[in-house]
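Budget justification, computational time. The allocation requested in the original proposal was used primarily to generate structure tokens for proteins on the priority list. As evidence of use, we reproduce two of the resulting records. The first is shown immediately below.
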Amino acid sequence: MKKEDLIIKWLDNNLSESELKAFKELDASSTFMKLDEAAKQFKAPQFNVEENLEKLLRQKPAPVKQLSWKRYISSIAAALVLTLGIYFVFFNNNETTFFAQNTQQTEFNLPDASEVVLNAGSHIAYIKSNWNNNRSLNLEGEAYFKVEKGSTFTVNTSHGTVTVLGTQFTVKSRENYFEVICFEGLVQVIHNNKSYKLPGGNSLSFVGNTIQKDYTKLTEPTWLHAKSSFVSVPYSEVIQELQRQYNLEVELDASHGDTLFTGSFTHENLETALQAITIPLNLSYDIKGNEVVLKTR
């Protein structure tokens, strides 16, 4: 007899001696029997029907409140407005966000097929459902954009905005540093309410009140190929980039922070990277686990 049939007959208390023996040999039989014994211990509470009926009849019925139909309709309308508001907030305005953790890069396409690559320690957010009406995104960190021709959109950062039309460029927006490099086409940069036109082969950076314009022969950022490059960049920013690419802490004498650095470091070997950024400044380094201490020689 099948296991299911034995259980059904046991529940109906309709097993023969041989069937009962077979049931007890089932793996689950002990569990069923324990449940059966526990169920026998339950007792229904004592209930006096006549006494409780008499108490019920002696109670006075509670007055019924008349509900105004206008108030009823208003309540429904308010609930409907609230429901629609919640829907539009959570479903129509939901943000799409991409992250690149330290030591990593993240690649994705925008709804218009434009390509984006996030550098380490960066994130970007935009409203995907409303992209055709509002081609705008928010960036914290650094990203490379390869924009489809005819697709215009704006990159918002805490330092300013960059508006583009069919171009390739990078935007770097860190705590005390803002940089835009245009590799191809034309971008418009707005910083502190001032507008700048930046054609391909040019870069623009802002450090405090200092504005620096430069040229580049690159066709894309070097960090796409595991190398960070700098041209007259504050040394403190170089160190912060090293921390993001290797996910470590660096201790540096504050006196070196504002020194301008031109050079590069690899993302693939920490010793080589440290030599590349310390030798030009006559610094030494000491690696202690996940920490690096830089000192003057």
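The second record produced under the same allocation is shown here.
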Amino acid sequence: MYQILTDSCCDLPYTLLEEIKVDFISMYVEVNGTEMADDLGRNFKIDEFYQKIKDGAMPTTSQVNVGRYVEFFRSYAEKNIPVLYICFSSGLSGSYQSAMQAVEILKEDLPEAEVLVVDSLAASGGEGLMVYEAAQKQQAGMSLQELYEWLEENKLTYHHWVTVDDLHHLQRGGRISKTSAAIGGLMNIKPIITVDVEGKLQNVEKIRGRKKALQLVADKISEATTDPANQTIFITTSADQVGAEEVKRHLEESIQPKEVRIFPLGTTISSHTGLGCIAVFTRGEKRN
């Protein structure tokens, strides 16, 4: 048997990852001068983190370095357990490149180590949905190589549609200008964001008003979902449970998906989005 691995940018609770037998490596978040592991709620409580942002904290994040990846992979290689690592998008972080370097270094010591790395080209619940479905396929009997090839062939079928409420965090991250953030705040403009074929964020539309933005995100996911009766949809949110429930209701009324699950947006991703982000994820045709 092989082990599926991922990282904390998948934004699935650690309890769910334990349930589906997936291990993860943490990104690190620094808030108010203290660095903490994004451990998906095991010790770093997400509600307390949201409160720090609400109180004015501006967290920063750091990716996994090569040395930590080497030790993460080594812990399985030394037990002769093959691994499949589903990694945060290379379009948003250097983590994928670090993971690939770590595999090369590990094989200098353990040439028989079997470590396959998938650049998910996804983030948050998009990466999480990929991990969740990969675990299901593993349990159904798919081999390591079969699953690796399936993920490489199908990773662009995972769709992301996102809206944010706090333009200040987008401006700080360089996604929009300071002027655009100021004007957008005054005019109640809500950006609509997706993830493109390179795994990068793209601002695709600007909607005036939160309610209309949530409706558009729900509509985009409805359009993208090709087999709703058999599709689980994930929603992640940074402290807007009411908005997330509203999107869930829209989806259940419009396409009746198999299941819609809501999770907290993790500390790494919400450090860049601020509070009030709602992101929705499904599978459909390959994004283009």
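A brief technical remark on that second record: The domain at 3-156 is CATH 3.40.50.10170 (Rossmann fold).
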